[in-house]
Each structure stands twice: as structure tokens, then as C-alpha cells.
Amino acid sequence: MDPASEAADPIRVAVEAMAPSRKRAFRELLVLLRSEKRASPYDGSVRDCWVVVEQGAKLIVYCRGGLTGRSESDAWGVLDADDASLGHDDCWYRSLDDAFIASGLCDRSLVPSDHEFL
């Protein structure tokens, strides 16, 4: 299986797991999946991330293993398009839904006031 197809499966599953109202809004922002190399701010290691949304200088990415490369639980990042790093801990989320909300790209009317990040 090629890397793009391998990355597409968890992305597809994550989109389907989103709340229906946010899923519709998110799908309008999806871009053609592409890979970017990003460096860890902690050890300099370079990792492949898959860009799923690009709006101005903001990206939502999927990175197998998350920020550290060892944790599938925080595989969704909200990163700066103008910076080649993986960002810091507070840029990474357990779900695509949480990353979408935290990115500021999700209309707040689609987020319940009692939403808790996973």
C-alpha cells in the first residue's frame, strides 16, 4: 500500500467519527492529501505529516505517532503553514474533531458550550 493510501484510512475514519454538523463544515475545507516533512522542536527528528486542511497560515495535519512519534493518541496537529516544525504539545489533539474545534476554523455555533477536549 502506498503511503498516501495508508494515511487516508485513519483520516477517513476520523472524519466519519466527527459530530454530523461539524463533519459537513469540515468536509468543505478538505484539501487534496499531501505529505510534508516537519521537524520536532525537541529532538530535531523529521517526520511525515499529512495535510488535510489548509486555510491561510493554518494547517490541520495527521501524523502517525503524533508529536513524539510514539503516540497514536495525539495524531492530529494544528500547525503554522509558515513554520517547518511539528509545533509543541499544545498543538496536538486526540481527535480530528478536537483539532478542528481548536483550530478556530470551526464555526463556534457548531460546538456545544460544554464541549470537553479528549
How would you characterize the overall build of this protein?
The protein has helices at about 5-15, 20-25, 95-105, and strands at about 30-40, 45-55, 60, 75-80, 90-95. The chain is α+β, with helices and mostly antiparallel strands. The protein has one domain. The chain starts with a helix and ends in a 15-residue tail after the last helix.
Give average pLDDT, whole number: 88
Beta fraction: 25-35%
H and E order: HHEEEEEH
- Main beta sheet strand tally, sense and closure: 5 strands, antiparallel
Oligomer: single chain
**Number of domain units:** 1
Q: How large, in whole angstroms, is the Cα Rg?
A: 13 Å
The number of distinct β-strands equals 5
Helix content: 25-40%
Tally of DSSP helical segments: 3
Global shape:
globular
**Uncertain runs:** none
- Derived structural class: alpha+beta
Distance between the termini: 31 Å
Strand order of the largest sheet: 1-2-3-4-5
Short description:
The protein is 25% helix and 27% strand. The protein is α+β, with helices and mostly antiparallel strands.
Reconstruct the topology from this structure.
Blueprint: H1 3-16, H2 20-27, E1 30-39, E2 46-55, E3 58-62, E4 76-80, E5 92-93, H3 96-103
